[in-house]
Design a protein that fits this description.
Elements: H1 2-7, H2 14-35, E1 39-43, H3 53-67, E2 71-74, H4 80-90, E3 95-100, E4 114-118, H5 121-131, E5 132-137, H6 142-156, E6 165-168, H7 170-185, E7 198-201, H8 204-220
Parallel strand pairs: 1-2, 1-5, 2-3, 3-4, 5-6, 6-7
């Protein structure tokens, strides 16, 4: 695990590590260029089984995104990722997976047209944003939450513009949103407009229409300067 060796300072080859990380970023950027169309990144747990309602919803959203003309990008693994990639294939669209080397749990699913496996999380996460016009986020664990809050931080600080974030499964996300409103917003740690960055739904059609509306708006508007300089 290259990340562990770097972070635990077990390997003094800093120049070699930097060069390998740079090559991984380049490979990722080249893979993103191959997509050649607007894309939506779908996140969610790798541990969701094929008979789960969450899997069925992710598959349906992937299909509808493909039918709307979007490529579907995921982490390339099982669970929600597989479901969204599978739906994209079934919808006649382009299915993309950016996988990660892990000691357990993660393996590449079989529904990928473009795939690339990363050794470093930070390079992989950059490609999720680089490729996408927006995120659809299904139930998941620490990794999914990490991707959610990184997306919100990038929007809040103006690093990305016109970037919709859809949380799919209202019951799942409701307790988190209650905490955000009751603690972060109440204590002034986020602004009321920050909550407008999120769309929460159980409807695949609403998820796709949200992405289409933002994409159409982005194409119609010229880029603007970010309003915020730092995260709160």
């Amino acid at each position: 695990m290259q990340d562990r060796r770097i972070l635990e300072q077990q390997d003094g080859d800093l120049r070699g590590h930097a060069e390998r990380i740079g090559r991984e970023f380049l490979d990722g950027f080249l893979a993103v260029e191959r997509i050649g169309r607007p894309a939506i990144t779908v996140f969610g747990s790798a541990r969701v089984s094929e008979d789960s309602p969450v899997y069925a919803c992710a598959r349906e959203v992937g299909r509808r995104l493909a039918e709307a003309g979007f490529a579907v990008v995921t982490g390339g693994g099982p669970g929600v990722m597989e479901a969204a990639n599978r739906g994209a294939r079934e919808g006649g669209g382009l299915s993309v997976g950016f996988n990660i080397e892990l000691p357990h749990e993660q393996h590449e699913n079989r529904y990928l047209d473009i795939s690339l496996t990363f050794a470093h999380f930070y390079a992989r996460k950059t490609m999720f944003v680089k490729a996408a016009e927006g995120f659809v986020i299904f139930p998941g664990g620490f990794g999914t939450l990490d991707e959610l809050f990184e997306a919100l931080t990038l929007i809040q600080t103006g690093k990305v513009l016109h970037f919709p974030v859809v949380l799919f499964d209202e019951d799942y996300w409701a307790p988190l949103l209650v905490w955000i409103r009751g603690r972060l917003l109440a204590d002034g740690l986020v602004s009321p407009e920050d909550l407008d960055l999120l769309t929460v739904t159980d409807d695949p059609d609403q998820a796709v229409q949200t992405m289409l509306a933002f994409y159409d708006r982005r194409c119609a508007e010229s880029p603007a300067e970010p309003e915020k300089a730092d995260a709160q």
